[in-house]
Write a structure and sequence with these properties.
The complex is a heterodimer of chains A (254) and B (213). Chain A is built from eight helices and seven strands. Chain A is α+β, with helices and mostly antiparallel strands and 254 residues long. In chain A, the strands form two sheets. Chain A has a five-stranded mixed sheet. A two-stranded antiparallel sheet of chain A has the order 6-7. In chain A, strand 6 and strand 7 form a beta hairpin. The longest helix of chain A is centred in the C-terminal third of the chain and has 16 residues. By secondary structure, chain B is an all-alpha fold. Chain B has a single domain, classed as Fumarate reductase/succinate dehydrogenase, transmembrane subunit (3 helical TM bundles of succinate and fumarate reductases), CATH 1.20.1300.10. Chain B is built from nine helices and no strands. The chains are: A alpha+beta (254), B mainly alpha (213). At the A-B interface, strand 4, helix 6, helix 7 and helix 8 of A face helix 1, helix 2, helix 4, helix 5 and helix 7 of B. Iron/sulfur cluster binds next to helix 4 and helix 5 of chain A.
Chain lengths: 254, 213
């Protein structure tokens, strides 16, 4: 038998990118503790719709923690209070009957609010584009193992590639910096032989674009690492710094 | 040289400047602390140290100008980063919560920095820009200054602020330089904490010692 709880929600409502928003209060009644946070919002939205009111806009897609679409700040914590969890994988059993929950969108100059809890993370796409391409040989498939990659490097590259681009690192960073995201994206290629030829160009271009997009400057607060649903380590930020210094000071890329 | 200023001008480049100048100041703190510890050896021992230091003549001036240059870079870059970061989140959160990454040191970095700057100016006015002669030796000035209760409070507060600043600054500088290694990072963080405690206790006990003389 699943338990049910009643909650008070304080949700950020904002009609459009250029309008003023405010926190509105809603009741979430008879919420099964087996529901995910998004399912709880679905229930609230159904009631709002039945009442002829505008449902709360929020982003989501896979609902299984792999796509990176979901994400809001719950009581001051990106993706809620659980470690290594996306919002869609956060279950209501982590809340108690009678709780008041504050729900706010990611806050960053680079991620403007589109509506309510949905923000425009197009800046991340621009960053990925700035990363450019990797050279991969076309033609017949290569013989297995002719490009040896140490197991440790493969593991580290995989860990970095686990980033789903959700933006929680920016949202939770006291400086709204995108260093963890860029660190992960630069690392996953810098560690592998396939990414080497363009490494210098990639590091310089991604860092410059990151600055232009209006993200803040990292001050090693480590909040990103603590909030990242994929637990991306800040050692990737250190690697980004190394790649950047190498590219800026010792490569011939301008 | 465009490539050079471009590299240093980015967010990571500015952090690099903060890290290098910050580590230089950590080095300065060590030297300054070792020098000040001669106070515990009594008046003559301390005066001998002062004399020895002054015997370097122009080298001291060069060192002072170097420190001034480091300070200008550190303060101006720090302020640029600080104001840039305020602009990166124009609308803040209604509810803020720490996820466990921040420390008192990291949270207060810009503020402890500004307080330290104010203290250093005061400190220089009181102890550096003074005409020293036989009637006013460095030791006399130190013990006169440290017998004013108001100054002692400011001094101890500043030492605590410095320790807090260093507790984040030390390991953070290594991370910025890219020196994050699974074998050495815990050591670097440990050294940072021990270093901030040594700075806090080493400098912080001086007024107590002077008063007990
Ligand atoms: S680094 Fe983590 S928090 Fe940042 S976008 Fe990637 S998965 Fe999300
Ligand atoms: S909806 Fe895809 S990660 Fe949450």
């Amino acid at each position: 038998m699943s338990e049910t709880i009643n909650l008070t929600l304080r949700v950020w409502r904002q009609k459009g990118p250029r309008t003023q928003g405010s926190l509105e209060t809603y009741k979430a009644i008879d919420i099964s503790t087996d529901m995910s946070f998004l399912e709880m919002l679905d229930v609230v939205n159904e009631e709002l719709t039945v009442d002829g009111k505008e449902p709360i806009a929020f982003d989501h897609d896979c609902r299984e923690g792999i796509c990176g679409m979901c994400g809001v700040v719950v009581n001051g914590r990106s993706h809620g209070p659980e470690k290594g969890t996306t919002l869609c994988q956060l279950h209501m059993r982590h809340f108690s009957d009678g709780d008041t929950i504050f729900i706010e969108p990611w806050r960053s100059k680079a991620f403007p609010v589109i509506k309510d809890l949905a923000v425009d993370r197009g800046a991340f796409d621009t960053l990925i584009q700035a990363g450019g391409f990797v050279s991969v040989n076309a033609g017949g498939a290569q013989d297995a193992n002719c490009l040896p990659v140490p197991q440790e490097d493969a593991e580290k590259a995989m860990d970095a590639a686990a980033c789903i681009g959700c933006g929680a690192c920016v949202a939770s960073c006291p400086n709204a910096s995108a260093m963890l995201f860029v660190g992960a994206k630069v690392s996953q290629l810098a560690l592998l032989p396939q990414g080497k030829p363009e490494a210098a160009q990639r590091a310089l271009s991604m860092v410059r674009t990151m600055d232009e997009l209006g993200f803040g400057n990292c001050t090693n607060e480590r909040e990103c690492e603590a909030e990242c649903p994929k637990e991306i380590s800040i050692s990737n930020i250190a690697r980004l710094n190394r790649e950047y210094f190498k590219a800026g000071l010792f490569s011939s890329v301008m | 040289m465009n490539w050079f200023t471009n590299t240093l001008g980015s967010s990571i480049g500015k952090k690099l400047m903060m890290a290098i100048t910050g580590l230089c100041f950590c080095g300065f703190l060590v030297v300054h602390l070792i020098g000040n510890l001669t106070l515990y050896g009594g008046k003559d021992f301390f005066s001998a140290y002062v004399e020895h230091l002054h015997s370097y003549g122009p080298l001291v001036t060069v060192a002072e100008l170097g420190l001034l240059a480091l300070a200008i870079i550190h303060v101006l870059t720090g302020l640029t980063l600080f104001f840039g970061n305020l602009g990166a989140r124009p609308e803040g959160y209604k509810v803020n919560k720490n996820a466990g990454g921040r420390t008192i040191g990291s949270l207060t970095m810009p503020y402890t920095g500004i307080l330290l700057l104010a203290f250093i100016v005061l400190h220089l006015i009181q102890l550096r820009f003074v005409n020293y002669d036989e009637t006013m030796t460095v030791f006399q000035n130190v013990s006169n200054t440290l017998s004013q209760p108001a100054y002692v409070i400011i001094y101890i507060a500043a030492v605590i602020v410095a320790a807090i600043h260093v507790s984040h600054g030390f390991w953070s500088a290594f991370q910025t330089l890219g020196a994050n290694h699974p074998k050495y990072m815990p050591l670097i963080q440990g050294v940072g904490i021990v270093f901030s405690l040594v700075v806090g206790i080493g400098f912080g006990l001086i007024p107590g010692y002077i008063l007990s003389l």
